[in-house]
C-alpha cells in the first residue's frame, strides 16, 4: 500500500509516468509490442521431450552464427600463395594459401581461436544431426499433415541448405582433406553431359582448382546460404506459432486445443536454460574431441589425395552412391558420358525430392483434407513407419559405401567385397527393413488391441474351482485406454464398380488405379489391425474378459 502511494506521489510530483513506462508506451505506439506480446506470451506449448529436438537445431544455428562472426574477423578468403612462418614447425617454410595460413593462425596464434573453430564445426554437425532426427520425429508421428505441409518443405530446404553450407564451410581452410572433397565435387560436376565443363569453369573460374573458389565459397558460406537459412527459420517459426503446436493423444487433448505450459514464464525459462545446456555440451565436445586438424593434413595440392579422406556424415550418402556405382561410360553424339558418376548424381536429388513431396503424396493417397494437430504413434501407421526405416537403412548402407576404404582397413576386409555388399544391399536392405518394420508395427498394434480388451498382465496366477490356472489381468485406466484407441484408421480407397447400372463400362484412369493400390497397401487388411470397438470392449469387460 505504501509503495503504491509513493509511486502516485512521485508521478504527481514530476507530472509524468516513470521512464520505463514511458519507453514501453513509446515503443507500443509505434510497433505494437504490447498487443503482440499479449497475444503470444501466453501461448501454450506441450511438454514432451521430442519437441526439444527442434530447439537443439535452433540453438546450434545461433552458436554457428556467433562463432562464425568471430572467425570471419581473422580468416582471409584468398588463394594467393604465402610462405608459412607460424609456430607449427613441420610446415615452416612451405608455400600455402592465405586461407590455409589464416586458419593456422586462428588455430595456434589467436587466443581461443582453435576452440571457437572446434565449436563452430561441431555445432554445424549437431545442427544437421538435430534436423535429421527432428525431421524423422515429424515424419514418424505424422506431424507433416495438413496444415503443416509447407512447414515440412521449409524444414527440408533448411536441411539441404545446411548440407551445402557445411560443405562450403569445411572447404574454406584449403587443406588436403577439404581439397580432396572439392575435387570430388568437381568430378561430379564434370560428369554432367555437355554442360559439365562449362559449369566447372564457371564455378572455379577456370581450370581446377583455380584461384577463386575459396573466395566464392566464402561468399556463399557467410552470406548467401546463411541469409536464406535465416529467412527460412523465421518463416518456419512463424508457421509453428500460427498453426499452434502438435501434441500426442491424451485425455483432454483434441484437434482444437493444446494442453501444456505457457510461453511466459515457464517455457521461456526452460528454453533459456536449455540453450545454455546445448552450448555447454557442444563446448565440452569441442574442447575434448579434435576435429579437422589441418596442420596434420597440410595444404591442398592437386597432385595429392589424402588417404582415408571421408566427407562429413551428411554428405556420405552422395559419395557412397558414386563409390559403389560401376564405372560405366558410353559415347553419345560425340560425347563421352560418365554414367558411373552421372547416374548417382541424378539419384541423389531424386531421393531428396521424394522426401520433400511425401506429405502431398500421403494426403493424395488418403484423400484426407482435414487439419491434424494430434500426432500418430508410429506403430499405428505401419506403412509410413516402414518407409521411414527403409530410407534410414538406405542412407546407412550408402554411408558404408562412402567409407568403404576405412571399413576395409579397420575390419580387415576386402574393399571389393564391401563394395559388392553395398551394391546388393542398396536394393535388398530397404525392402527387408520395410517388411520387418511393418510386421513389428502390426505386432505392436495386436498387443495394444489385446491390452484394451483384456487388460494388463499382472503376473499373478489364479486357480479356478474347476482346476484351470489363469493369469489375472488388470483393466487399463481411462487415460491408457484413450491413448491406445485415440488414433484414426482410414478406409482404403475403392475404385468402385467398373460397370454402371446401364451396363456401360466405366473408364478408370491409371492414376486412379495407382491411388487405390497405394491406399490398399497403406490401410488395407495387411496395413493395419482394426482397433477394438466400444461394443467389443463392453462385451468383454462386462462379461468374463477380465479375470
Automatic annotation (TrEMBL):
Residues 23-249 form the Cytochrome b/b6 N-terminal region profile domain. It catalyses: a quinol + 2 Fe(III)-[cytochrome c](out) = a quinone + 2 Fe(II)-[cytochrome c](out) + 2 H(+)(out). It is a multi-pass membrane protein. Its main location: membrane. The chain crosses the membrane at residues 51-75, 121-140, 152-172, 184-205, 217-242, 274-295, 337-361, 381-400, 420-441. Gene3D superfamilies: Cytochrome Bc1 Complex, Chain C (1.20.810.10). It is found in: Cell membrane. GO terms for cellular component: plasma membrane. The keyword Chaperone does not apply. InterPro entries: Cyt_b/b6_N, Cytb/b6-like_sf, Di-haem_cyt_TM. One of its GO terms (molecular function) is quinol-cytochrome-c reductase activity. Keywords: Cell membrane, Electron transport, Heme, Iron, Membrane, Metal-binding, Respiratory chain, Translocase, Transmembrane, Transmembrane helix, Transport. Its EC number is 7.1.1.8. GO terms for biological process: respiratory electron transport chain. Its cofactor is heme. PANTHER family: CYTOCHROME B (PTHR19271). This is Cytochrome bc1 complex cytochrome b subunit. It comes from Streptomyces uncialis.
Amino acid at each position: 500500500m505504501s509503495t503504491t502511494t509513493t509511486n502516485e506521489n512521485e508521478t504527481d510530483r514530476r507530472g509524468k509516468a516513470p521512464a520505463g513506462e514511458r519507453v514501453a508506451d513509446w515503443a507500443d505506439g509505434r510497433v505494437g509490442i504490447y498487443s503482440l506480446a499479449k497475444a503470444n506470451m501466453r501461448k501454450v506449448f506441450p511438454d514432451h521431450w521430442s519437441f526439444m529436438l527442434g530447439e537443439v537445431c535452433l540453438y546450434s544455428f545461433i552458436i554457428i552464427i556467433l562463432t562464425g562472426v568471430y572467425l570471419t574477423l581473422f580468416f582471409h578468403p584468398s588463394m594467393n600463395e604465402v610462405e608459412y612462418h607460424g609456430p607449427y614447425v613441420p610446415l615452416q617454410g612451405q608455400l600455402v594459401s592465405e586461407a590455409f595460413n589464416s586458419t593456422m593462425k586462428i588455430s595456434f596464434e589467436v587466443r581461443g581461436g582453435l576452440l571457437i573453430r572446434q565449436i563452430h564445426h561441431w555445432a554445424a554437425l549437431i545442427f544437421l544431426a538435430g534436423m535429421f532426427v527432428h525431421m524423422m520425429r515429424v515424419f514418424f508421428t505424422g506431424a507433416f499433415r495438413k496444415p503443416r505441409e509447407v512447414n515440412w518443405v521449409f524444414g527440408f530446404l533448411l536441411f539441404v541448405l545446411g548440407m551445402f553450407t557445411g560443405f562450403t564451410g569445411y572447404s574454406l581452410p584449403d587443406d588436403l582433406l577439404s581439397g580432396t572433397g572439392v575435387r570430388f565435387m568437381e568430378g561430379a560436376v564434370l560428369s554432367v553431359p555437355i554442360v559439365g565443363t562449362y559449369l566447372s569453369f564457371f564455378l572455379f573460374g577456370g581450370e581446377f582448382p583455380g584461384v577463386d573458389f575459396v573466395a566464392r565459397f566464402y561468399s556463399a558460406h557467410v552470406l548467401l546460404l546463411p541469409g536464406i537459412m535465416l529467412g527460412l527459420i523465421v518463416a518456419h517459426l512463424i508457421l509453428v506459432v500460427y498453426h499452434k503446436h502438435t501434441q500426442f493423444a491424451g485425455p483432454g487433448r483434441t484437434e482444437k486445443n493444446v494442453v501444456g505450459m505457457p510461453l511466459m514464464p515457464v517455457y521461456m525459462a526452460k528454453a533459456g536454460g536449455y540453450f545454455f545446456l546445448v552450448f555447454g555440451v557442444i563446448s565440452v565436445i569441442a574442447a575434448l574431441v579434435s576435429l579437422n586438424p589441418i596442420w596434420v593434413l597440410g595444404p591442398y595440392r592437386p597432385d595429392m589425395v589424402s588417404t582415408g579422406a571421408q566427407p562429413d556424415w551428411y554428405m556420405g550418402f552422395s559419395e557412397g552412391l558414386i563409390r559403389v556405382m560401376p564405372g560405366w561410360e558410353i559415347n553419345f553424339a560425340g560425347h563421352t558420358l560418365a554414367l558411373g558418376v552421372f547416374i548417382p548424381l541424378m539419384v541423389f536429388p531424386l531421393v531428396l525430392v521424394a522426401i520433400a513431396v511425401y506429405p502431398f503424396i500421403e494426403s493424395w493417397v488418403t484423400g484426407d483434407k482435414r487439419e491434424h494437430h494430434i500426432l500418430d504413434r508410429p506403430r499405428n501407421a505401419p506403412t509410413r513407419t516402414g518407409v521411414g526405416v527403409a530410407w534410414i537403412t538406405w542412407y546407412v548402407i550408402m554411408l558404408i559405401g562412402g567409407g568403404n576404404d576405412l571399413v576395409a582397413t579397420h575390419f580387415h576386409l576386402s574393399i571389393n567385397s564391401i563394395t559388392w555388399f553395398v551394391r546388393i544391399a542398396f536394393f535388398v536392405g530397404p525392402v527387408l527393413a520395410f517388411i520387418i518394420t511393418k510386421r513389428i508395427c502390426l505386432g505392436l498394434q495386436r498387443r495394444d488391441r489385446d491390452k484394451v480388451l483384456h487388460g494388463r498382465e499382472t503376473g499373478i496366477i489364479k486357480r479356478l474351482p474347476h482346476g484351470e490356472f489363469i493369469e489375472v489381468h488388470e483393466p487399463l485406466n481411462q487415460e491408457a485406454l484413450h491413448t491406445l484407441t485415440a488414433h484414426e484408421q482410414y478406409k482404403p480407397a475403392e475404385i468402385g464398380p467398373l460397370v454402371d447400372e446401364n451396363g456401360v463400362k466405366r473408364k478408370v484412369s491409371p492414376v486412379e488405379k495407382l491411388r487405390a493400390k497405394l491406399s490398399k497397401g497403406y490401410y488395407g487388411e495387411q496395413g493395419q489391425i482394426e482397433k477394438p470397438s466400444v461394443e467389443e470392449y463392453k462385451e468383454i469387460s462386462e462379461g468374463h474378459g477380465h479375470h
